[in-house]
Description:
Layout (H helix, E strand, L loop, with lengths): L1 E3 L2 E6 L2 E6 L16 H22 L17 E3 H14 L1 H7 L5 H4 L10 H24 L7 E3 H25 L11 H25 L23 H16 L4 H13 L1
Antiparallel strand pairs: 1-2, 2-3, 4-5
Helix pairs in contact: 1-6, 1-9, 2-5, 2-6, 6-9, 7-8, 8-9
Amino acid sequence: YTRRFGVTIRYSTGMLHHVDFVHELRSLPPRFPPTSEKELYDLTFFLWTILAIASFHALFFITAPYGRYSPSRGLTFRSDILWALQESPCLFTFLPFAIASPRCRAFSSGIGGDDNTAPTMAYAILSAAFCVHYFNRVVIYSLRMKAGHKPYPVLTAAGCMAWCTVNTYLVQRGLLHFDAELPRDWHINFDFALGMTLWAVGFGLNVHSDEILRKLRRPGETGYKIPQGAFFSWVSCPNYLGEIVEWMGWAIATDFSPAAVLFAFATFANL
Length: 271
């Protein structure tokens, strides 16, 4: 059995056998004010869970101020620069801590780590997957924006930046310090293989769909156009679907780290 945040998961020969949801009080709500980083982490996790649930319900009734629904008033700036800034905490906050984390020092410990440590290469692979996604979002996506000169609301960018900062703190500290404990046989573990496969499929779908959107208008064309072809024939926003699948798979690969599960749900709730 592996204990998680309010969940007991039973494994059989490395496979997910079945899941029993066990409701625990586990000192919820967390201590306030927090007196240690663990208490700060638990409090942030608790509040962010409430916010994700609230956002999921609110967005059925409220139109998010994004894209063609961006407000026409207020302070604005170039969309390519603000996009890179709003997504940057996910890359530049996560990356240095991942490099410094003992859980990511794969090549000094080997595939399985030693008898007293977690499988460090698995943590390095998970960290690399997170950074690859956000390198694409921060650097490649913003540089390839065809309408990067268009105005983008500063308030929207500030809200996205705050969202990215808190999510990255929870994911980074949860995966590399507080919560995730990957099995030593991760390299033959079904959950890890399934999760990383879903991550790769979701990442590919996200990038491919963004490319279709980028080529939607010919030079000089303006106005609203509906994309056609590929997964756009099946769903209205396959770029969003790809990102949801990506983080669902990543959460599975982390052995259902609570922070990774919350990150996947928060992504789903906001998209």
